[in-house]
Amino acid sequence: MRRTGASIGGLYLIDDPARMLRLVALSGLPVEFSRPWQRQPLNAPVPVADAIRDDRLVWVGGQDDMTRRYPRAAAVLPYRFSLAAVPLNGVRRCWGGMVLMWPGDHPRDASSRERSHITASAHRLARLLDDSPRPPVLPEVPRALPLETARHPGHTHMTAVDYLERLPEGAVALDLEGRITFVSTAAARLLGRPAERLLGARPWQALPWLDDPVYEDQYRTAVISRVPCSFDALRPPDQWLTFRFYPDSSGISVRVTRHDDQGAADTAPATAGRPSAAPTGRLYQLVHLAAALTETVTVRDLVGLIADQILPAFGAQATVLSAADAGRLKIIGHHGYPDDIIERLDGLPLDTELTPAGRVLTSGVPAFFGSPDDLGRDHPRAPRMSGKQAWAFLPLVITGRPVGCCILSYDEPHVFTADERAVLTSLAGLIAQALDRARLYDTQHRLAQELQRALLPRTMPAVPGLSVAARYLPAGHGVDVSGDFYDLLRLDDTTVAAIIGDVEGHSIAAATLMGQVRTAVHAHATAGAPPDQVLARTNRLLVDLDSELLVSCLYAHVDLTRGRLTLAGAGHVPPLLREGPGAGRVLDIEPGPLLGIGTDVRYPVTATALPPGAILALYTDGLVERPGQDASRATSDLLRHLTTADDRDLEELADSLVHHAWPTGQCTDDVTLLLLRAAQLHH
Q1: CA 505, CA 232: separation in Å to the nearest integer?
Q2: Which segments of the chain have a pLDDT < 70?
Q3: Residue by residue, what is the 3-state secondary structure of 512-534?
Q4: pLDDT tens digits, one per residue of 479-537
Q5: What gap in Å lies between CA 587 and CA 579, rounded to an integer?
Q6: Which residues of 516-543 are buried (b: 16+ CB within 10 A; e: fewer)?
Q7: 380: exposed, middle or buried (C-beta count within 10 Å: 0-12, 13-18, 19+)?
């Protein structure tokens, strides 16, 4: 911090058993401020986790940069500052990460000198950890380290006090924890309290008229941003005072002055510059957790969030998440309990005498039990088989409708403070919303998957001399059903028809139309229609159905005996043909219009040779159309990979092509691929 001029610094170490980041040391900031950040999952969307995951220095140049890249973190850090996060990479392992913060007036970009100091310091810290004979002990609460600051020599304490006492304005000094360490006589007079009653207290605790989150947040702004700020406050009955904060790394100097001499409330100063109300203390933690809950999608995500963030935030060790179902509590997620205990607890009736969960769901009021004796007094029949020593039962209710129950449990007796109860009660409503949304998503997703499986072929027909591999990869957005389809039809012993297509959109309507197209193609192909007529007759069906959706389709007739390939296309991407190692081409077929676009249309036919051992690749546009990339270039790149990749195993080749197109597996559109390899047959 001294080398770089940083005002705040934090050291995170990896807690290996829990796969969490633990804040173990902090300087320049009250430990209480760090409560939402003391434990973070390794995959959390925060700078230090990104730095460790990507093995790089992460620089955040300002609040707008933080809002754009880390919106959840910005929600609870609405202040001006710059931030750097860097991993601590040792010889054998990554130990964790370091975070540094600079005042709000720091340039948006880090200088090369600062970056060099940051990375060098991270390497030194990693070496210290490497050389330690024992693994580091991770404290429950971060260790606070004071940052020594230079003081002007020759100025005695009494000289400074005398100077301040002679000024007509008030002077107050706060430490970084917000406690008053000095108050001048003029300041005490303006504040209306004797100095001895102010020393050691926080202003918003000692002065009721300053007990407003707006004013406490100004102090937080000064501590984190390290830039001067000011606000006006009304001292009853009618005196407006102006407070100006001047922070540094050791504390905050505060000037207190009268705003004007008119003294009437109706002449109060304009408050346009006053900050909007912001949460403080535990409420910051609630905002942080609320932001995280909005990002959960599935029930599994929700249980993971409770385990990784909510349990550590409240010192709990285990959780059970249950859903109300037909008069019983069905456990849908848990953490910190053995499976055999969960099996015995699953499906307990919502009996208000048997389990606290039933009572809290009936009343809608949370129940907190700090010890087994507390639980036994209220629920003597409640099963106690887990060995836990304290519990918080949170009812999950949405507009009067019971959704379920979330239980936080502790390995040791626990005293639930008033603010813990308040935050947990508020958190229960947010968990209820997240659970209801996640269960709906899971149900829709399961139905969509079942519908998709029903619409795609379960197996491929076995045809002598033909090897086939197919892949379907749904896009990673929502629970919509894809309109992609493929099929392989055995026409006789030596000929097959391969079909691939794409109905526009992602919806039940698209899936339904896809099923109708597959059925129509299947019927016309098995009836002996040539490729162009298969598409033409299917097109007439779609026109008669008067669907607003259009369909692209490619029909390939494969004659294994003659080694011939006959193709007809309806606005579909052209297929690829690998003719041998390093040899291949994009098949130039004359395209026809999309299916459903109108009547009296023709579909040209293209014929070409299919050499023995050649591989035909049919695919949908999701394999080659990527945001910001040219589709023709992507097609050429895909062909190059097809012709150079190992083709001994067709299944592995299919996986290789999909991975080449979408290395992360997170495709922006559905991807369907059908590979056929023919060995020429002889009469």
Answers
A1: 56
A2: 75, 147-158, 260-285, 351-354, 418-419, 449, 452-453, 475-482, 506-507, 627-628, 664-668, 680-683
A3: HHHHHHHHHHHHHHHCCCCHHHH
A4: 456 678 889 999 988 899 999 988 877 667 777 788 888 889 989 999 989 999 999 99
A5: 11
A6: bbbebbbebbeeebbbbbbbbbbbbbbb
A7: exposed
Kindly provide the b/e burial profile for residues 150-171, where b requires at least 16 CB atoms within 10 angstroms of the residue's own CB: eeeeeeeeeeeeeebeeeeebb
Whether 275 and 267 have beta carbons less than 8 Å apart is answered as: no
> CA–CA separation, 195 vs 430, rounded Å?
44
Structural tokens at position 558: 């494969």
Neighbours of 429 (CB within 10 A): 15
**Cα-Cα-Cα-Cα dihedral of 266, 272, 273, 275, to 10°?**
100
The rounded distance, in Å, linking the Cα atoms of 314 and 333 is 19
CA dihedral 494, 497, 498, 503 (to 10 degrees): -170
Spatial contact of 513 and 551, defined as CB atoms under 8 Å apart = yes
Report the SS3 class of residue 568.
strand
Please give the DSSP secondary-structure letter assigned to residue 595. B
pTM over 0.85: no
What token pair was written down for 263? 């003294």
Four-CA torsion 324, 325, 329, 330, nearest 10 degrees: -110
From CA 20, how far away is CA 55, in angstroms rounded?
Answer: 17
Task: Note the pLDDT of residue 221.
Answer: 82
Question: Which stretches of 326-372 are assigned E, i.e. beta strand?
Answer: 328-335, 348-349, 367-369
| 570 close to 594: Cβ distance less than 8 angstroms | yes
Task: Tell me the per-residue pLDDT of 145-164, one tens digit each, with 9 for 90 and over.
Answer: 876 654 545 445 667 777 77
Look up residue 625 and give its DSSP letter.
Answer: -
Q: Got the DSSP string for 215-274?
A: HHHHHHHHHHH-S-EEEEEEETTTEEEEEEEEE-SS-EEEEEEES-S---GGGPPP-TTS
Report the percent of the chain where pLDDT is more than 90: 30
Dig out the tokens for 350 from the structure. 């919502």
Name the pairing type of β-strands 348-349 and 58-60: unpaired
Give pLDDT tens digits for 78-123.
778 899 999 999 888 899 999 999 988 888 898 888 899 999 999 9
pLDDT computed for residue 629 by the predictor: 75
pLDDT of 154 reads 47
Alpha-carbon gap, residue 248 to 551, rounded angstroms: 66
